[in-house]
Amino acid sequence: MSGVKAILIALVAWINANTALHYDPAKGMPQVIPLPVDAVVALSFRNPAMITPDRFSKARETLQAAYDDQRQLIYIRDDVDLNTVKGKAMLVHELVHHIQYRMGMNDQVPCQDALEKDAYLTQAKWLKEHGLEPSFSAFAVLVRSMYWREPAR
Fold it and tell me: Residue 111 pLDDT > 70, yes or no?
């Protein structure tokens, strides 16, 4: 078993023990693909038309990883050390998305951003349990996971 696969299985066991999510790794695990930051940012945009220079620049500063639900891939910046608490926290976040999609939870929300809340809260729990504070606030999680729609006309 590869080192990354062993980390993923251990993290899924932690997610199973510490959240309402329960997933059997035998049902399929994502592949982790380390990439340069610009590639991870580009792949994180579901709609290429939404990539503006300003959005790309902001995402480049903050984005560490992205989950591709169609290919079951986790894209992670190649400068993230997966053997550290912070590196594993990034994987926890993306594994929550993997589990959400595999359990069909994406079909139960008004938009995909609504899935972010559980991923961020689980990531924060992992960090706190390992003696670190998350770099994001509860307010940021709320905003990131809101369903934005145009008002009726």
Answer: yes
Closest CA to 126 of 73, 87, 80: 87
152 falls within a domain: no
- Is there a domain that residue 151 lies in? no
Residue 138 amino acid letter:
A
The domain that contains 107 carries what CATH number?
A: 1.10.10
Q: Tens of pLDDT along 5-45?
A: 999 999 999 999 999 999 999 999 999 999 999 999 998 88
Which among 69, 65, 2, 1 has a CA at the least distance from the CA of 30? 69
Quick check: 153 pLDDT over 50?
no
Helix, strand or coil, per DSSP, at residue 34: strand
Q: Which of 80, 76, 45 is nearest to 59 (CA)?
A: 45
Per the structure, the complete domain to which residue 25 belongs is given by 3-144
Beta bridge partners of 66: 75
Number of domains composing the chain:
1
Ordered strands of the 73-77 beta sheet:
31-35, 73-77, 65-68
